[in-house]
Every structure is written in structure tokens, then in C-alpha cells.
Amino acid sequence: MFALNAAGMIVLGFANARLVPRVPVRTLLIIGLVGSGIAAIAVLVIVGSPIGPVLGVGAVLIPLFVVVATRGLVSANATVLAVQRAPSAGAASAVLGACMFGGGILVTPLLALGGAGSPVSMAAVVAGGALAALFATVLLTRSPA
Fold first, then answer.
1. pTM higher than 0.70 for the full model?
2. Beta carbons within 8 Å of 81's beta carbon, 6+ residues apart
3. What is the pLDDT along the chain (145 residues), one digit of tens a residue?
4. Secondary structure E strands in 59-145
5. Domain definitions of the chain by residue range
6. Cβ atoms within 10 A of the Cβ of 7, count?
7. What is the rounded CA–CA span in Å between residue 123 and residue 64?
8. Cα 15 from Cα 77, distance rounded (Å)
9. Are 17 and 111 in contact (CB under 8 A)?
10. Residue 133 — φ and ψ, nearest 5°?
11. Amino acid 109: pLDDT
12. Nearest to 8 by CA among 86, 65, 61
């Protein structure tokens, strides 16, 4: 499953490289974030519903694959957009890296809220992060009027 998820990221990364000359970076980023958000909400609904255990692990693996694979669109385009908009590309890259690590550190305690063995907290953190990234991108990258 790990290899399949990695392959999904690679395929979308290659697709992104082909699309970037024709499609704006912001558009590709939003497409990736929308796909990730929808898939993350699907994971949350599946693991949080009483029917989740009946559906089994396979029902979670498909939307989780989409969440992971969309990193092929999100990571590169988010970095490009951040660096393009900053007055100093080096500083922007440093802040972006610090935010990624800092965000991971800050949300880690949230994973414990669901109790041992519960996938709901993990799914909630993934869905919350995907939606927060989408809303931040839409609001912070609008072209000035």
C-alpha cells in the first residue's frame, strides 16, 4: 500500500509537470486541495460511521490513496506559489519549511484525542488540515482587485 500511494504521488507529480505550462499554478494547487479535502472527508465519514467496520479497511484505503496522491499536485505548486509571491525566495522557502515542521508538531497531540486504536482522530486531523489548506489558499492567494 505504501508503494501504491508513492506511485500515486509520482504519477500526479509527472502530470503536474506536464500541466504547469498550460494551467496556472494556483489552479492546479486548488484542484489538488479540493481532491484531497473531499477524500479526507470521505475517510472521516467512513471511520466515524457505524458502518465503517462493516465496510472494512478497503473502504478507507481508496480515499486515503487520493489524499496521499494529491501531494503530487499540492506540494510543488504550494512551494512555487509561496516563493513567487515573496520578496525573498530564500526566506519564503525557509518559512515554508518551518511551517510544515511546526504544523506537524502542533497537530500531533490532537491525534491522541480519539483514544488508543481509534482512527477517527487521525481522519479528523487529515480532513481539518486539508480543508484549512484549501481555505487558506483560496483566501490568501487571491489576485488583488
1. yes
2. 25, 26, 29, 137, 141
3. 999 999 999 999 999 999 999 999 999 999 999 999 999 999 999 998 888 777 888 889 999 999 999 999 999 999 888 888 777 878 888 888 888 888 888 888 887 777 776 788 889 999 999 999 999 999 988 876 4
4. none
5. 2-140
6. 13
7. 9
8. 12
9. no
10. -65, -40
11. 82
12. 65
Kindly tell me the burial class for residue 28, based on how many C-beta atoms sit within 10 Å of its own C-beta (0-12, 13-18, 19 or more): buried
Task: Report which secondary-structure segment, H or E, holds 65.
Answer: helix 57-69
Here the cell at position 115 is 483514544
Number of residues in the chain? 145
Enter the DSSP assignment of 86. S
The C-alpha cell that represents 90 in the structure block: 530564500
Q: What share of the chain is helix, strand, coil (3-state, %, to 5)?
A: 85, 0, 15
